[in-house]
Every structure is written in structure tokens, then in C-alpha cells.
Design goal:
By secondary structure, the chain is of the alpha+beta class. Helices cover about 40% and strands about 20% of the residues. Strand 3 and strand 4 (about 80-85) form a beta hairpin. The chain is globular. The N and C termini lie far apart (about 45 Å).
Length: about 240
């Protein structure tokens, strides 16, 4: 993992820890366990389009996003890396590396300037050896990420491109730290993520805008009414 800087103030580090304790996987753990895990961390900074982890390389720890965002890329049988998901602060990657020396199966790339908390693998393994309960907590993170991957696959199998769009947007609104805020993804990237052409995506977006389901800005969009969008995706 490459980082631009690991220097930070105590206040910045504390703010990052508090955010991660409120959002995502760490929020499911006890206060005591959160403290054990977070004491191993340091802040890491990534530029837009910088790799947080690379497919084929062994991860050197867990990375939890605090600000910014990231894109997950997989390699198909054609040898081309393809974006399959965009994620937001609160997301953790590198869980499979804690108990395995196998290389990463995905690349995680920052989609804008990003601050993350890096937990070194050697210190996490030492904690888990001292406290067997942590094995279950780390496996819970792996299960959480697997559940997301299966959800993405299942939604991509939906025949209607318009329903695929509604499902993906509802998912992105759900994982945002503040639902209803702007989701930073270009229309071109969104079309690729749901496997449709850009004109097909734009026709669907125009209908969603007309029906008040989506608001669109430059390189971003917003879901003003999640329930209405979900109702549309189930029709």
C-alpha cells in the first residue's frame, strides 16, 4: 500500500476513529474491541486514481475509508481490469489478508483525494492471537464484503436496465455516510457499472429525473426519496 503521508495530528486521528466507529463494520463491535483495533492504526492519504491496494499483491493490513471514495476493480478473462463497484467512507478492504498470505483478488482505487485509516497486518495478527474473539470479528468483515459482492452480482442479473440502475443507486445511497447527499460518480462510470451503454443510461436518468427519483449534477447525483426509488426498482 502506498501512502502520501502518515503524519497527522491527534485530533485528526481521533476524528477518523470516531467516524469509523459510527459507520460500517466497526460500528458492529463493542467499544472495547474498537479500542483494541484502532490503537494499531495510522492515517494514510491517497490522491485521485491512486491505488489503495492492487490485485495480485499481498495486502499489508486493513484500510478503512474516512473521507473521499474508492472504486473496486476486477480482472475478467480478457485480462482487462473493470470497475464493478464504487464505495464510500466507512468501507474496509484487506480483510482476507489477515489470515492468508494469498494476493489480493481486487484492486481498490481512490476516486478522489482520500483519507483512510491503515491497520498494519502484523499488529492485527498479534491482537487476534491474544484474543480469539477477534478472529470472529475479522471474519465478520470478510462476510460483510462477500455479502456486498453477491448483492452486486445478483442485481446485475436483473434483466431490466432501468431496474438495475434503480437498484444500484439505492445501494449507493444506502452506503453513503449521510443518505440523501451527493453520490460522486460520472454518468459514464455509472453506465459501465450496470453494464449498459451511455445513451441507455441517460434515457433512464431522464425518466428518473422527470419522476423526481434522482437529481443530477456534474459528476454526481442525489436520491431525494430513497423509498420512491426502491418502489420503482420493485416494479
Amino acid at each position: 500500500m502506498s501512502t502520501k503521508s502518515d503524519s497527522h495530528s491527534l485530533d485528526e486521528f481521533q476524528t477518523a476513529c470516531e467516524f469509523l466507529c459510527r459507520n460500517g463494520w466497526l460500528n458492529t463491535l463493542s467499544r472495547q474491541t474498537q479500542g483494541k483495533i484502532l490503537q494499531t492504526g495510522r492515517l494514510a492519504r491517497f490522491d485521485d486514481n491512486e491505488a489503495i491496494c492492487r490485485m495480485g499483491e499481498c495486502a499489508d493490513g486493513l484500510v478503512g475509508l474516512v473521507t473521499g471514495g474508492a472504486e473496486i476493480r476486477l480482472m475478467g478473462d480478457d485480462g482487462v481490469l473493470t470497475a464493478v463497484h464504487r464505495t464510500e467512507p466507512g468501507f474496509w478492504c484487506g480483510a482476507s489478508a489477515i489470515f492468508s498470505d494469498d494476493p489480493s483478488l481486487v484492486s481498490v482505487i481512490a476516486t478522489r483525494p482520500t483519507v483512510a485509516l491503515h491497520l498494519p497486518i502484523t499488529r492485527l495478527r498479534a491482537l487476534a492471537d491474544a484474543d480469539p474473539q477477534l478472529h470472529r470479528d475479522f471474519h465478520a468483515l470478510s462476510h460483510r464484503n462477500l455479502a456486498t459482492a453477491l448483492r452486486l452480482v445478483g442485481n446485475l442479473c436483473v434483466a431490466s436496465s432501468e431496474r438495475r440502475l434503480a437498484l444500484r443507486l439505492a445501494h449507493y445511497d444506502e452506503i453513503a455516510p449521510e443518505p440523501g447527499n451527493w453520490i460522486f460518480v460520472s454518468q459514464g462510470a455509472l453506465a459501465d457499472l450496470i453494464a449498459v451503454s451511455l445513451p441507455t443510461l441517460q434515457r433512464a436518468l431522464r425518466r428518473f429525473i422527470r419522476d423526481g427519483l434522482v437529481e443530477v449534477g456534474y459528476g454526481k447525483l442525489r436520491i431525494p426519496d430513497r423509498d420512491a426509488l426502491r418502489a420503482h426498482s420493485s416494479n
